[in-house]
Amino acid sequence: MKIGFDLDGVIIDHGALKLELAKANGFSLMLEHTSSEIMKTMLPSDKYLAIQLSIYNDPDNPSPLMVGVLDILELLQKKEIPFFLISRRKNVPVINKWFQDRGLSKYFTSENSFFVATKEEKDKVAKKLGITHYIDDEVSVLEKLVSVNHKFLFDQFGVFPKSDLYTKISSWDEIKKQLLF
User: For the chain, which has fewer Cβ within 10 Å, the N-terminal or C-terminal residue?
Assistant: First the structure.
């Protein structure tokens, strides 16, 4: 087993910050609307992009980790199960600061963290690494991961339909149940 993780919406929870930034731009959303695939359908593209850039380029972004993520990463390390980060984030210095501030640098290093530009590139990296299980919060990414046999949609608000393409999970506790026990 080799596990791949997305960063935003799987490891880091930007939901509250997205709500705050949407409100500052004149939009009233609910937490269930903060998934990127939903939010981009509810806002004008220029506003959505501005919010995304604000979040992803802020080294002092206050977004917390998803509940339980550090416990599971620690368990994966102890069990010596290889895991990797494959993210479309472009600002690696900002991500390195996020990792340091949140205690993630113990788990994600230059050896197991990969940053790509497109969804298709996620699949190329996953294939090269031999990823068998991948967790992302975007259906459109999971659709592109043709080389990965076990795909999991991190859907913390239960807003996406069930599918034969992926297994839905809503928490890191569910990730633990699916992958470790």
Answer: C
What is the token pair recorded at 139? Answer: 């259906």
First-to-last C-alpha distance (Å) of the chain:
13
Q: What is the pLDDT of residues 106-125, one digit of tens each?
A: 999 999 999 999 999 999 99
Structural domains in the chain (count) = 2
Q: Are residues 37 and 101 in the same domain?
A: no
CB 153 within 8 A of CB 160: yes
CATH of the domain at 142: 3.40.50.1000
Q: Assess contact for 152 and 166: CB atoms under 8 A.
A: yes
| Cα dihedral sign, 74-104-70-84 | negative
Q: Are residues 87 and 22 in the same domain?
A: no
Q: What is the pTM of this model?
A: 0.93
Helix, strand or coil, per DSSP, at residue 85 = strand
DSSP secondary structure string for all residues of 92-141: HHHHHHHHHHHT-TTT--TTTEEE-SSHHHHHHHHHHHT--EEEES-HHH
Per-residue pLDDT of 154-163, as tens digits, reads 999 989 988 8
The residues with which 133 forms a beta bridge, in sequence order, are 3, 150
CB 133 within 8 A of CB 1: yes
Domain of 45 in residue numbering reads as 15-56
Indicate the pLDDT class of residue 181, thresholds 50, 70 and 90.
low
